[in-house]
């Protein structure tokens, strides 16, 4: 669907308006100039701010006005967002439970108002007034923030500490929806030894920097790819390096993604036992074999069940499972089946994703090959998972949204009481620096005082990483020096 915005407003507002349009139309395009679906915005700013938007959509003309007491850029966007939401909801009949929020981390706003001294009631009233967030989402936000603060009571005092993310860029095969660095291990196994040389170099030098400057490590997360794709011996080498170089005294949690069941074996579990790691992720995504085949998972449902049981027998006491809602050809029946199977296995935590069509994925490139359910069905299926969580004592503890997510919903992490992943909370709420080591690992550098955020990305493919890891390590150290020593 094509929309037009006049020249003087295009540069300043196009991104924001496009994000709002995408809440309603998957294929919304915004052009500069005049055309049939035209958006005309009038902004009056004195002491306060008044935005009047007149919009022609499919031949119908709508006008809406919104006011804010302040007259800054944020107030202008809030008021503009409100007018657009009112118009587009009236036109399409689609209601937006997240209101004008288009960002990835809605919980950050809630924390912000709470930290400024507002009660839960006041915080919810502000978010409802300024962003038009619906009560159901406000209650969810309140519940999650309370759970987060129970899991990490000093959540807002951890800015002087860091967490570590270690990225292993290999998987058995590439899933159709994936945009992570994930290279087929059978094809790339000769790259592993050299990759590990680079990773061990990063571990040694970053750990040294942290020790010299007395910076504590709160949590460590092994992700990727699938870290358990490499051999048990290589994983052991890596864990030995981590324990040898980092000061582990203050580390509260270590997690290893073992997402693909086809990478889990006795040897790997023995290595995890050796290092007292009992928190892993085994991700079924779906319990329907045809779906797993369609998305290129290369493992069966039975293998998920067998490897889960094998992990339990090896004292993996905190297992997360990921499910995806809206996978190709799946209806509420497949989702109900997945939830039933999940119930039998009883993992400590469950992360429910809504399928997102990420730009670079195979699924997005060949969208017609992957038919997915309609918006209402997606919402219904998500509600089934919420109901399941409630009935089975899973408490929501983190939440994030993505662009191009089906039904404009959210991804929710649930856990049983006391089993929440600290790392997931720390990264989602952006309370401290996360240092990314390894291929494609993204560092989120957060200034402990100003809270300014800079992202720094290691090379995605093993060959480039192997050539440049020293430069990247030292660049990162320079940036960390600026954050923690000035
Ligand atoms: S298991 Fe995860 S990282 Fe690996 S290909 Fe699938 S989605 Fe990507």
What would you note in describing this structure?
This protein has 3 domains: 2-92, Double Stranded RNA Binding Domain, CATH 3.30.160; 106-151, no CATH class; 155-481, tm_1862 like domain (pyruvate-formate lyase- activating enzyme). It has helices spanning 7-24, 73-92, 106-115, 120-131, 135-151, 185-188, 192-212, 232-245, 266-274, 289-294, 301-313, 332-345, 362-365, 375-391, 422-429, 462-485, and strands at 2-5, 29-32, 38-45, 49-57, 60-68, 162-168, 170-171, 183-184, 217-224, 253-257, 279-281, 318-325, 349-354, 395-400, 411-415, 433-438, 442-446, 453-457. Helix 3 (106-115) crosses helix 5 and helix 4 (120-131) crosses helix 5. The chain has 486 residues and is of the alpha/beta class. The structure holds iron/sulfur cluster. Residues 171, 174-175, 178, 180, 182, 224-226, 259-260 line the site of iron/sulfur cluster. Iron/sulfur cluster binds next to loops.
Give the gist of this structure.
By secondary structure, this protein is an alpha/beta fold. It is 43% helix and 21% strand. Helix 12 runs parallel beside helix 14.
Describe the protein's topology.
Layout: E1 2-5, H1 7-24, E2 29-32, E3 38-45, E4 49-57, E5 60-68, H2 73-92, H3 106-115, H4 120-131, H5 135-151, E6 162-168, E7 170-171, E8 183-184, H6 185-188, H7 192-212, E9 217-224, H8 232-245, E10 253-257, H9 266-274, E11 279-281, H10 289-294, H11 301-313, E12 318-325, H12 332-345, E13 349-354, H13 362-365, H14 375-391, E14 395-400, E15 411-415, H15 422-429, E16 433-438, E17 442-446, E18 453-457, H16 462-485
Parallel strand pairs: 1-2, 1-3, 6-9, 6-16, 7-8, 9-10, 10-11, 11-12, 12-13
Antiparallel strand pairs: 3-4, 4-5, 13-15, 14-15, 17-18
Helix pairs in contact: 1-2, 3-4, 3-5, 4-5, 7-8, 7-16, 8-9, 12-14
Bound molecules: iron/sulfur cluster (SF4).
The site of iron/sulfur cluster (SF4) has 11 residues, from loops.
